[in-house]
Fold this protein.
Amino acid sequence: MYVELPQRSERTEEDLELARASDALAQLARSTSPVAVESFAPLEDALRDWRRPRAIGDLGPGFPDLLRGAHQRLAGDIERRAFNRALVAHLASGLRFRLDDRALPPEVLKRVPPALDRLHGFLSEAPESYGLGDDHFLKDVRFAAGWTFPCGAKVVDLSSRLSLPVSLVAALRCWDPSLAVRALTTERRAPWFEHHTESRYLDEFSETGMETTYRCVASLLRLHPDVAGLTAYGWLYDPQLAEISPHLSYLRQRPLKRGAISIRGGTSDFDIENSLAKSKTRRRLYEEGRYKPVAYRILWLRRDILRWDDQTLRGEG
């Protein structure tokens, strides 16, 4: 369930920018694709169910098999990568027709045309690795399909589901019986917004950018009353960073100060690779055996986000 926005009768400048960016992507799809763009229809249909809660690595039950089947009919890797680029461009060119169904607030909607332009630029450069299992491809498909949207420093999934144990821990530690009841019923388990770092677009990755993300999420929550709150998972929320990389500690401390909780996770190769990629200090400490990145999950309930947002609007936050 979500709150429907009133329909607009006049086209705004943002509408015109959206149409321009969409048309450019449609043209790129036609010029890049090794097949007729009409053949993308089954793949597009497989991505229509945006409300089903899903994890970041999930593209739905049918999409991966359909994509592999389409690849088998192509000559080689060059054509397959071209197919993938054209597919994403085609999907993104139609995003404007799916926006009303997503119930996005103005502060999120205005970020869609620039995001489409960035996507056009990336696809035009013909990335060498771009397919299933590639982080960029995964995030681009989700954005193009209208599952994930730019919100300041982060991109935000509109629908993500937590495991039963994590859902119950969240309900107990946040004193929310209704969340516990919903957690026990798979069909009713509450969806969450989940934010992720987009490594290609870090121009807003800062404390100010994160405040923008939180405000965007608060506005989204007001239009999606069934969503439980905001979650995130990764090494960036590790309490060790308060000493090792204090300039990143706000990513954990700000939500916790405003009512969020954190749950310790594990350490994956992905966490190690990303935590060491841009820091000589973290790499040195890791090689010396003095630092091992640990992923944590942040859980920030809607009631606490909206309370913080209301206080901010009153000048108290």
